[in-house]
Write a structure and sequence with these properties.
Shape: globular
Number of strands: 0
Order of helices and strands: HHHHHHHHH
Length: 230
């Protein structure tokens, strides 16, 4: 089955990238990252081919993954071309943010989630976004000119996670939504590490870079795999 073949290749390539990426930015690592991200996207594509009944959910997950792929590339270009660092970083934030909107939409549409669950998710997520920026000094990070976009992005990131967790509970821990929930939690943890790497001090060591990307790809592959089981 092509799904498992792509998944296996993707996991191997992603692990190689995580190992290499700990040494910093390079054109070679950008290529590895692009292939790794393409593989989680293809995992979702073949999962949908094997489970065509999840057409809308799968299509939205694929769109979110495609936007994530572009965001991945932009964030590495940030490290390669310092003169345009701000442009690439903001671009990465925007592409990932819109990607999370597609992920959220996939969950809401497929579960036909009640409005009060959506409201609860939105309120919790807004609080998380606000708290992330408000507690910058406590967390020893400096967002500077990125404070607003960090707050907005964190709110949408959190909403993907909270919505997925709620979906898992209301569907009786259905396998697809459970994978989506675990994947979104890992995605969130990855961004927590990334935030410290980008905006903190002394937290961009090789092991920080490895952990960040390991959590990220583990999360994205689980999100992609959820298409097969929804």
């Amino acid at each position: 089955m092509m799904y498992y073949a792509v998944l296996a290749v993707g996991v191997i390539v992603s692990l190689v990238f995580c190992y290499e990426r700990r040494l910093g930015f390079s054109v070679k690592n950008l290529l590895f990252k692009s292939v790794s991200s393409l593989c989680y996207l293809l995992t979702a594509v073949f999962a949908l081919i094997n489970n065509p009944d999840a057409y809308t959910y799968g299509s939205l997950i694929i769109m979110g993954g495609a936007l994530g792929l572009v965001g991945d590339i932009l964030l590495d270009l940030k490290g390669l071309y310092k003169a345009q660092e701000k442009t690439y970083l903001k671009g990465g934030f925007i592409f990932f943010l819109v990607g999370h909107i597609f992920y959220i939409g996939a969950i809401l549409y497929s579960t036909r989630m009640k409005w009060y669950f959506i409201l609860i998710s939105a309120v919790i997520s807004a609080i998380i976004g606000f708290a992330t920026v408000a507690m910058a000094n406590v967390m020893k990070v400096h967002y500077g000119a990125y404070r607003r976009i960090v707050g907005i992005y964190c709110a949408f990131l959190a909403m993907t996670m909270v919505t997925a967790i709620i979906a898992t509970i209301i569907t009786g821990f259905q396998k697809g939504y459970l994978l989506m929930a675990v994947g979104s939690v890992l995605f969130t943890l990855s961004d927590a590490v990334l935030s410290n790497t980008f905006f903190g001090r002394g937290k961009d060591k090789p092991h920080h870079l490895f952990i960040n990307h390991f959590l990220y790809y583990a999360g994205q592959y689980l999100i992609a795999a959820s298409v097969l089981f929804v």
